[in-house]
Amino acid sequence: MAAPLEIDWLPSSRIGDLQAFLEAEWRAEHVLARDAELLRWQHPRGDDELSFVAATERGELVGVLGVIPVEFGVRGDRLSGAWLTTWAVTPAARARRVGLQLLELALECHDFVGTIGGNATTMTILGALRFQTRSAVPRWIRPLDRTELAHFVGEIPDAPESPAGDGFTVREWRAADASDWNLYWEGTLASRLVGVCRDARYLEWRYLSHPRFDYRVEIAEAQTGEPAGLLVHRLERASGGEMTVLRIVDALGEGLAVAALALHVAERGRRIGAAFADFYCTSQHAARPLETAGFVAESALGLEFPSRFQPFEPGSRPLTAAFRLASQNTEQLTGSDVYFTRSDCDQDRPS
Ligand SMILES: CC(C)(COP(=O)(O)OP(=O)(O)OC[C@H]1O[C@@H](n2cnc3c(N)ncnc32)[C@H](O)[C@@H]1OP(=O)(O)O)[C@@H](O)C(=O)NCCC(=O)NCCS
Q1: What tens-digit pLDDT sequence spans the chain (351 residues)?
Q2: Is there a single domain that holds both residue 145 and residue 25?
Q3: Co-location of 185 and 69 in the same domain
Q4: Which of 214, 243, 279, 61 is nearest to 152 (CA)?
């Protein structure tokens, strides 16, 4: 008779078992198997548990599903959300519905469940479970150093750039901005978006307290002194030194304010010699102000800009997405106000 299977959240005391499992069953040398601080930061659930659903048989882990807990907003309503990360079952325990039981617990505990960058297996299984699936999150590109790009991408047409509008001061985020940003988020942005609640608490956790990456969070301040836009980016140096890329991971706010921020970071990218800037975002509407700063949809350029840098790989790999709302009509997740970027889920992390 098969041993009973326990499915539950993983006690923090078992972090060593989890890392050994990831090393053996997921990928040798995977960053989460090596870096306990990053693992704890990415999967917070309280003092005693990690946000990993674990399947245990005879005291041994036989399967895990990583969950990044987030507050999820549907046009102003706050729901509990979960981004799914590492999902693995030992070969000996596969095809016994262990994977599904791990997923069921995550679905029971959260109204929104999604993943970004899922592989073909994940997309097949989640598609069959009626998740909304997208084969590629749109990506916007701002070429910055055409000579360097000519080696890796080819000849790139000129992108028009409009002059910056007056009326906004672009500056780095300060801790004292939190309450004004929350007012702007709650009063203006939240009701227009479907996506993770990007309030100050989230920004501080996701970007400012990141244990390994150095994100730069900038806001555009209106003449009244109130925030009118936010843009977050980091610089990524390809592992072999091939190029530096400026990676925008959030762009939110009034069109003109976001355009001013985008022009500002494009200028920074040029100054430091970045080859190009990119921004993955499901919302065409949110990304449109970047076009003022010379960003163009990668699909419209008809060229492949590298998307993996650790290690560097030429060519662009599509970023998939799959998501589901348990308590509301999943149709809510089809509109152009659905705002997911590369910093949602676990795609913007060290590898
Ligand atoms: C994906 C994975 C976790 C599923 O775990 P599992 O315990 O074998 O899956 P289950 O037995 O619960 O099966 C769930 C359903 O998915 C289907 N399924 C399982 N593996 C599949 C695969 N590789 N491709 C397509 N469908 C698959 C099963 O047929 C089943 O569907 P059904 O109910 O219609 O029969 C496991 O196959 C695994 O560890 N794969 C390697 C790692 C991986 O690719 N993980 C996903 C990316 S994070």
Answers
A1: 678 999 999 999 999 999 999 999 999 999 999 999 999 999 999 989 999 999 999 999 999 999 999 999 999 999 999 999 999 999 999 999 999 999 999 999 999 999 999 999 999 999 999 999 999 999 999 999 988 888 888 888 777 777 776 789 999 999 999 999 999 999 999 999 999 999 999 999 999 999 999 999 999 999 999 999 999 999 999 988 789 999 999 999 999 999 999 999 999 999 999 999 999 999 999 999 999 899 999 999 889 999 999 989 988 999 999 999 986 667 778 888 999 999 999 999 999
A2: no
A3: no
A4: 243
Instruction: Identify whether residues 172 and 310 lie together within a single domain.
Output: yes
| Burial call 4-24: b when 16+ CB within 10 Å, e when fewer | ebeeebbebebbebbbebbee
Distance 262 CA to ligand 1 centre (A): 41
User: Who lines ligand 1 at CB under 6 A?
Assistant: 86-89, 94-100, 119, 121-122, 124-125
Phi and psi at residue 344, in whole multiples of 5°?
-75, 160
Cα 85 to averaged position of ligand 1 atoms, centre (Å): 14
Q: For ligand 1, atom 8, which residue shows the shortest CA distance?
A: 94
Domain extent for 20: 5-134
Whole-structure pTM value: 0.95
Residue type, 271: R
Spatial contact of 202 and 70, defined as CB atoms under 8 Å apart = yes
Question: Is residue 89 included in any domain, yes or no?
Answer: yes
CA-based torsion, 8, 12, 13, 16: positive or negative:
positive
Q: Are residues 167 and 75 located together in one domain of the fold? A: no
- Residue 206 placed within a domain: yes
Assign residue 183 the CATH number of its domain.
Answer: 3.40.630.30
The domain tally of the chain equals 2
Residue 207 lies in a domain: yes
Q: Are strands 308-309 and 216-221 parallel, antiparallel or unpaired?
A: unpaired
Cα(97) to ligand 1 centroid in Å equals: 8
Q: Is 215 helix (H, G, I), strand (E, B) or coil?
A: coil
d(CA 307, CA 314): 8
